[in-house]
Each structure stands twice: as structure tokens, then as C-alpha cells.
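To: structure subgroup
Subject: Chain for Friday's discussion

All,

I'm putting the inputs and outputs inline so they're searchable in the archive.
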Amino acid sequence: MPEVTPELIKELRDKTGAGMIQCRRALTEAAGDLDKAVTLLRKAGQKILDEKAGRAATQGHIGCYVHQNGAIAVLLEMSCETDFVAKTEKFRDFARNIAMQVAAMKPKWVSRQQVPPEVLEKEIDIYRAEVPPGRPPAVAEKIVQGKVEKFYGEACLLDQVYVKDEAGRATVKDLLASLAAEMKENIGIRRFVRFQVGE
């Protein structure tokens, strides 16, 4: 079994933003495999997020980002349970980074639950029409489902791949789960508004 070195722990911390103890545990459980440790941390974060989802998150912070040329600006509301967490630098930096994500990737909704049913139905109709004729119904449905997932990955903030993740695997939802696990609170993104000159 590979040794869990401080350098490996630091690399995992840099990749995930998780605490040192969490990183050490994940690396030990993953036998030193960095990718497995990342997966373990994401699963643990999602589990904590699910457990805390019912708790009231009445505190928070408005993150903002203005692009260098001043032509794009984003305001984003993040929620948490306590004022203490809302005032932490980590929470505020996260809000700003996600506001930057909104500026760059132009999502329309926070989550897939916010997509209006009529919009989704219209997209599904388009995808069904694009399926080549003669495909078996099961195959056609898989093609449509794949396109629906791609639609969510572009239109819904939580489903988008985080732009600063070099590996291109972590979604905004994954990062939110990691932050919730680290802060031990129910943390969420309530809403955002994106302004662009000329739109």
C-alpha cells in the first residue's frame, strides 16, 4: 500500500478543498489512490448535504463578480445555517467563484428542478426528432436521455462542470457537497442574476 504522504494530502486538498483530516482518511481508505480518494470525498460530501438538506438555511452571502471589461456582472445568493459560516473567507470565496462560473458559462437555472416542464418537453421533442429513423425504441430513448443530460449540464448551474477544475470532472454540485461537508452545514445556492451589456 502506498504511503499517505503530506505531499499527497496537500495535492488532494488543492484538488477538492477538503480539510486535512478528511483528506488523510480518504487517502488511507483509498490505499493512496488519488482519484479514488476524490470520489470518496465527493460521496461523503453529498451524503452530508443530503442529511442536512432539511435544516433551515436562513443565513448567507451575496457573491458578486464583475468581468474585467465591465460588460458582464453576476450577483449570486448562497445560503447557509449560521452567520458564522456566512462570514468565513472560504464561504465568500466559494460564492465569488460560482458567480464567476455563472458569468462564464451562462446557466439559465440553478438546478434541474427549476427547469419549467414546458421547456423540458420542448427539448425532448426536438431530441426525439433528431434520432435517426429505424433505431430500436430502447436505443432511441437512451439517445434522448443522453441529450437531456447534456442539456442539464449546460443549462443548470449545479450540473455544470466547474470551469476551474482542470480534470473537467467536478460539477458545481460536487463542490457544493464538499463545502457542506467541510462546514458541516446545509449550504445551497438560492438564485443568481447575470447582467450583460447589450442583452
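Points worth raising on Friday:
Strands lie at 59-66, 72-80, 188-196.
The chain has three domains: 6-52, 59-111+156-196, 116-154.

D.
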